[in-house]
UniProtKB/TrEMBL annotation:
Source organism per UniProt: Pararhizobium antarcticum
Protein name: Flagellar P-ring protein
NCBIfam families for this protein: PRK05303.1 (NF003676)
Domain of life: Bacteria
NAD found in the keyword field: no
GO cellular component assignments: bacterial-type flagellum basal body, distal rod, P ring; outer membrane-bounded periplasmic space
Function: Assembles around the rod to form the L-ring and probably protects the motor/basal body from shearing forces during rotation.
Gene Ontology molecular-function annotations: structural molecule activity
Cellular localisation: Bacterial flagellum basal body
UniProt xrefs under PANTHER family: FLAGELLAR P-RING PERIPLASMIC PROTEIN FLGI, FLAGELLAR P-RING PROTEIN
GO biological process: bacterial-type flagellum-dependent cell motility
C-alpha cells in the first residue's frame, strides 16, 4: 500500500497547525543555547596503527611511515640502521578528538583515526601511544587502543565487494586527558549564553525570562541581549556561578526562527517551516517525456553470395506531455500552502522546481535553502 507524498505532506501540515497565527515553541534555555566558556576544543596528533593483516602502508610509497617506524623503534631501544623493512602491517594515521568543556585529567574521550598513506584497511589494528595537541601546541591528551572500523572490503581474482570506509575508524575511550584547560568556570564574573540558532526575538525573550527570575531571586535585572546570538548574564555578588547557571538553564522560553524552506534536490526532501508565506501567484506545471528506442536489424546476405552482413538502424521516438494544470497559490499558513501544492498533483521533484520558480518570482516570503 502506497501513500502519496502530497497527501502525507498535507497530513503533516494539518497535524502541525490549523491556525493562521504563527506558532512558537517552548524550550528550555539549555536546549537552545550554550555557555561560551563551555565550548569544545579540537585536538590533533600523528600516530601509527600496527597489527594490520597485510593491509598497511607500502613503505616505499609512504616514506613518512618508515621514518615514523624507525623513530618509534629507536625510542624503544631497537636499532634499525642498515635494515630495509618491508612490513605491510603498519599504517600512518592522523588522530583527532574533541576535548569537552571542563574536562579534568584522568577522564577519557573518544578519538577518530584516518589513514594518511596507501593503506587499504585499518580493521584489526591497534593505535600506538599518540599525543594529542591543541591549537596552542600544548599536549592535552594521549591516545592508544584498538581501532574499531565499521566498513569492510573483500576481493578475489575477478570480483570484489566493499561497504563503508575501511581507512578510518574510532577508538572508543581511547584517549586519557593529561592536562586541563587553564580557565576556570567559577573564576568568571558573568555568563555569555550563545544561541545555537541566532535570532533577535529569541535572544530578547531569553533575556527577559532571566530578568524575571533574577528580579524574584536577587531583586534586580542581570541579563542583556547583546545581539542575535549572545545574551550576557552578570553574576550577582552573593550568587554561586554554577548554581546560577543550573537555575537559568532550566528556564522555559519561547523560541522563534525565520521562515525557511529547505530543499535537498539529491534526495527529494522538502522541509517547509511553519511561518512560510506565499503571495498570490499562478502556477502551471507540465511534464514533457521523450522516449527514444533503438531496435537495430541485422541483415544477412544470401548463401554463396559475395554480400556482407550489415546492421540497419531503426529508431523510434515518442513524445508525451502530462500535466499542464494551472493553480492559484496563496498561502497564509502552512496548511493552505501545502494544500495548494497538493492540488496540482506533482511529485517532490516537481514541488522543488515550483518552489524555486516562486522564489525567483518574488512570491515566496521565506528563505529558500538548497542542499
Amino acid at each position: 500500500m502506497t501513500f502519496p507524498f502530497g497527501r502525507w505532506l498535507l497530513a503533516m501540515a494539518t497535524a502541525l497547525s490549523l491556525a493562521t497565527t504563527p506558532a512558537v515553541a517552548a524550550s528550555r534555555i539549555k536546549d537552545v543555547a550554550s555557555v561560551q566558556s563551555g565550548r569544545d576544543n579540537q585536538l590533533i596528533g600523528y600516530g601509527l596503527v600496527v597489527g594490520l593483516q597485510g593491509s598497511g602502508d607500502s613503505l616505499r610509497s609512504s616514506p613518512f611511515t618508515e621514518q615514523s617506524l624507525r623513530a618509534m623503534l629507536q625510542n624503544l631501544g631497537i636499532s634499525t640502521q642498515g635494515n630495509d623493512s618491508r612490513s605491510k602491517n603498519i599504517a600512518a594515521v592522523l588522530v583527532t578528538a574533541n576535548l569537552p568543556p571542563f574536562a579534568s585529567p584522568g577522564s577519557r574521550i573518544d578519538v577518530t583515526v584516518g589513514s594518511l598513506g596507501d593503506s587499504t584497511s585499518l580493521r584489526g589494528g591497534t593505535l600506538v601511544m599518540t599525543s594529542l595537541s591543541g591549537a596552542d601546541g600544548q599536549i592535552y591528551a594521549v591516545a592508544q587502543g584498538s581501532v574499531v572500523v565499521t566498513g569492510f572490503n573483500a576481493q578475489g581474482d575477478a570480483a570484489s565487494i566493499s561497504q563503508g570506509i575501511t581507512t578510518s575508524g574510532r577508538v572508543p575511550n581511547g584517549a586519557i586527558i593529561e592536562r586541563e584547560l587553564p580557565s576556570k568556570f567559577k573564576d568568571g564574573f558573568n555568563l555569555v549564553l550563545q544561541l545555537r540558532n541566532p535570532d533577535f526575538s529569541t535572544a530578547v525573550g531569553m533575556a527577559e525570562a532571566i530578568n524575571r527570575y533574577a528580579t524574584t531571586q536577587f531583586g534586580g535585572r542581570i541579563a542583556e541581549a547583546r545581539d542575535s546570538q549572545s545574551v550576557v548574564v552578570d553574576k550577582p555578588k552573593m550568587a554561586d556561578l554554577a548554581r546560577l547557571m543550573a537555575d537559568i538553564e532550566n528556564l522555559v522560553i519561547e523560541t522563534d526562527v525565520p521562515a525557511r524552506v529547505v530543499v535537498n534536490e539529491r534526495t527529494g526532501t522538502i522541509v517547509i517551516g511553519q511561518d512560510v508565506r506565499i503571495s498570490e501567484v499562478a502556477v502551471s506545471y507540465g511534464t514533457l517525456t521523450v522516449q527514444v528506442t533503438e531496435t537495430p536489424t541485422v541483415i544477412q546476405p544470401e548463401p554463396f553470395s559475395r554480400g556482407e552482413t550489415a546492421v540497419e538502424p531503426n529508431t523510434t521516438i515518442q513524445a508525451s506531455e502530462e500535466g499542464g494544470t494551472v493553480a492559484i497559490l496563496n498561502g497564509p499558513n502552512l496548511r493552505s500552502l501545502v494544500a495548494g501544492l497538493n492540488s496540482i498533483g506533482v511529485k517532490p521533484d516537481g514541488i522543488i522546481s515550483i518552489l524555486q520558480g516562486i522564489k525567483s518570482a518574488g512570491a515566496l516570503q521565506a528563505e529558500l535553502v538548497l542542499q
